[in-house]
């Protein structure tokens, strides 16, 4: 945008009524400036139209509000009807916001959540869910999708604290909330073992499957749930 303003200032007449030639020259300069701006931003230009991400009011004391890492990570996002790959981005779990880095690497931009259908980051696939039934609107980590679906609402919270007479922001993980979508119903739970109750019609088979495959919620909570759901979908299709 600075580039555009600079070019505009160079072509606005300082006095007198602009002639037809001046007007045409001015319009040409405007078109050139816009083309230069959109061209410099590349194919991701539509991503860079949101507001600037300014972070939190007070410095972070410990941890960070983002998913996995506080460093920009390459990911992909389906935004406003288009898929954008190789995007430097963050997912702010506390605020449930997706932040992208502009092409020049100097501005963090917040994407408009309602225009995001899904995004992938750090080997996780997140989907946008509008408020339906018992699922609040927001972004959910989709761990499994078949006849059944497993979603996770990642959760962090930020609080203001005083550290050495200075106000700071403390961030901590909260318990994740799990959702299983099965037969048109939504089942919400926190403890992974609850999934066996949700799939009660195949309880005995699931118990044997877990024993045979040495599955343990303690060793691999989410990995075990994904395998159990895949097993359930397989046996119920037969």
Question: How would you explain this protein's 3D organization?
Answer:
The protein contains five helices and 14 strands. The protein is α+β, with helices and mostly antiparallel strands and 238 residues long. An eleven-stranded antiparallel sheet has the order 1-6-5-4-3-7-8-9-10-13-14. α1 (2-11) packs antiparallel against α2 (20-41). The protein is globular, with a radius of gyration of 25 Å. The termini are far apart.
How are the elements arranged and paired?
Blueprint: H1 2-11, H2 20-41, E1 51-52, E2 60-62, E3 73-79, E4 82-92, E5 97-101, E6 108-110, E7 116-121, E8 124-129, E9 138-145, E10 149-153, E11 156-163, E12 166-173, E13 177-182, E14 185-189, H3 194-198, H4 203-212, H5 221-237
Parallel strand pairs: 2-12
Antiparallel strand pairs: 1-6, 3-4, 3-7, 4-5, 5-6, 7-8, 8-9, 9-10, 10-13, 11-12, 13-14
In short, what is this structure?
The chain has 238 residues and is of the alpha+beta class. It has helices spanning 2-11, 20-41, 194-198, 203-212, 221-237, and strands spanning 51-52, 60-62, 73-79, 82-92, 97-101, 108-110, 116-121, 124-129, 138-145, 149-153, 156-163, 166-173, 177-182, 185-189.
Number of helices, where a helix is a run of at least 4 consecutive DSSP H or I residues: 5
Low-confidence stretches: 1-16, 30-41
The structural class is alpha+beta
User: Whole-number radius of gyration?
Assistant: 25 Å
**Quaternary structure state of the chains depicted:** single chain
- Average pLDDT, rounded to a whole number, is 86
What is the general shape?
globular
Largest sheet: 11 strands, antiparallel
Strand order of the largest sheet: 1-6-5-4-3-7-8-9-10-13-14
Report the strand count.
14
Which percent bin holds the helix content?
Answer: 25-40%
Order of helices and strands: HHEEEEEEEEEEEEEEHHH
- Give the N-to-C terminal Cα separation: 59 Å
Amount of beta strand: 25-35%
